[in-house]
């Protein structure tokens, strides 16, 4: 997503994985509007290539949740927020069955926040959902549901009581749209930590360039071979706001799996990253209270 508003962004929400057996996210609910009542999950449709197996993921982790993401039917088109088809569909391997909203808000970094917040909500950790505006002011879901709303004046933000308490899903989406309004790759990149060894990539990591323009993609899953060589899947939204989709690997037509390396360039259909652009959220997922993460 190219930076398109004055930058204010993320975050104290985070990723955790490792140990335990691989899972497919089947125990989670995915409550947003969907086009299909039932369909393949990410883990069901996208198997690792021969010689690779998915790395272990803790049951209930972000990695586990992402493996259960529902996908639209094979061949589904990526569409913009206004319903138009994206002209070039060659970069999408599969489309996640999740709404993009009706406004040009849910672009690249926003899609990452959307998925992260949806996971925390589904995992019973809604009170830890918090994203920071670039002004440094925290935007907490627990404040929003209590009826507080941001009053933004330049780079000054104050939260005032303007609504009734509301913990509904529609209120949750209104909260996220407000975060998206003041979000950007620049501020997101400042809130994350560099990964020392990108060859040891984990689900939930983010390749991000917080420039003007900038872009970000989310690591949705990771597999490895007997020698420890890792491969990974990427999720992306872009500009204009569009369906979140699994990226095709342009270097290996027909496959969405990318090889993990410590250095070098990472070529995706819409953007070129460096492997050194890999970042990780600073807080473990679903384990740190909002006060501890403040």
Structural features, described:
Helix content is 18%, strand content 21%. By secondary structure, the chain is an alpha+beta fold. It has one domain. The strands form 4 sheets. Strands 1, 2, 7, 8, 9, 10, 11, 12 and 15 form a 9-stranded antiparallel β-sheet that branches. It has a two-stranded antiparallel ribbon with strand order 3-4. A two-stranded antiparallel ribbon has the order 5-6. The longest helix is centred in the middle third of the chain and has 15 residues, at 108-122. The chain is globular. The model is unreliable at 1-22 and 288-294 (pLDDT under 50).
Short description:
With 294 residues, this protein is α+β, with helices and mostly antiparallel strands. The chain contains seven helices and 15 strands. The strands form four sheets. Strands 1, 2, 7, 8, 9, 10, 11, 12 and 15 form a nine-stranded antiparallel sheet that branches.
């Amino acid at each position: 997503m190219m930076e398109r508003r004055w930058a204010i962004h993320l975050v104290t929400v985070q990723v955790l994985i490792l140990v335990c057996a691989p899972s497919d996210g089947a125990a989670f609910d995915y409550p947003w509007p969907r086009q299909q009542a039932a369909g393949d999950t990410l883990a069901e449709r996208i198997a690792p290539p021969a010689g690779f197996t998915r790395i272990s993921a803790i049951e209930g982790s972000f990695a586990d949740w992402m493996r259960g993401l529902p996908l639209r039917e094979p061949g589904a088109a990526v569409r913009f927020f206004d319903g138009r088809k994206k002209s070039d569909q060659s970069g999408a391997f599969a489309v996640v069955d999740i709404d993009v909203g009706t406004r040009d808000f849910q672009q690249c970094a926003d899609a990452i926040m959307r998925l992260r917040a949806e996971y925390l909500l589904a995992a019973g950790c809604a009170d830890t959902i918090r994203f920071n505006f670039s002004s440094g002011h925290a935007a907490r879901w627990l404040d929003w549901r209590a009826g507080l709303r941001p009053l933004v004046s330049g780079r000054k933000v104050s939260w005032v009581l303007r609504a009734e308490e509301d913990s509904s899903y529609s209120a949750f989406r209104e909260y996220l749209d407000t975060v998206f309004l003041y979000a950007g790759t620049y501020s997101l990149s400042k809130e994350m930590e560099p990964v020392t060894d990108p060859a040891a990539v984990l689900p939930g990591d983010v390749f991000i360039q917080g420039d003007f323009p900038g872009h970000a993609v989310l690591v949705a899953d990771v597999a490895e071979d007997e020698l420890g060589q890792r491969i990974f899947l990427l999720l992306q939204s872009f500009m204009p706001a569009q369906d979140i989709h699994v990226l095709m690997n342009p270097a290996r037509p027909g496959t969405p799996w990318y090889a993990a390396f410590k250095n070098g360039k990472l070529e995706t259909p819409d953007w070129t990253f460096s492997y050194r652009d890999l970042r990780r959220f600073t807080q473990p997922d679903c384990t740190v209270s909002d006060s501890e993460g403040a």
